[in-house]
């Protein structure tokens, strides 16, 4: 019974990880990239590096802060698109506690 329960839990984790859609932003207009993120909330964008040929770059891009986990903040990022070299989007970045503390200490 424990093995069945463990297998069921692992299946759910794998299904959840595959639930996010993946796109190539270089095949979409900037507006379509932004609309896709807005519609789905969070997507994976994957594209080739311009500086290192053959190197794939990818990240999770989000529509709002609610798609970030605790300890992360939504920050602006840029991806290439079919009609723009730098299409503005958002990613979640982990907040560095030391940096945050220094900012608070400067205010006081």
Descriptive tags:
3 helices, two-stranded antiparallel ribbon, 108 residues, three-stranded mixed sheet, alpha+beta
Span of the ends, CA to CA:
58 Å
Query: Helix segment count?
Result: 3
What structural class do you assign from the helix and strand content? alpha+beta
Could you state the order of secondary-structure elements as H and E? HEHEEEEH
Beta-strand percent range = 25-35%
What's the quaternary structure here? single chain
Average the pLDDT over all residues and give the rounded result: 84
Q: Helical proportion?
A: 25-40%
**Order of neighbouring strands in the sheet with most strands:** 1-2-3
Gross morphology is: globular
Low-confidence residue ranges: none
| β-strand number | 5
- How many domain modules? 1
Radius of gyration: 18 Å
Notes on the protein architecture:
With 108 residues, this protein is α+β, with helices and mostly antiparallel strands. It has one domain (21-107). The chain has helices at 2-18, 30-40, 97-107, and strands at residues 21-23, 42-48, 56-62, 72-79, 87-94. It starts with a helix and ends with a helix. The mean pLDDT is 84.
Summarize the structure.
This protein is an alpha+beta fold. It contains three helices and five strands. A three-stranded mixed β-sheet has the order 1-2-3, covered by helices on one side. It has a two-stranded antiparallel sheet with strand order 4-5.
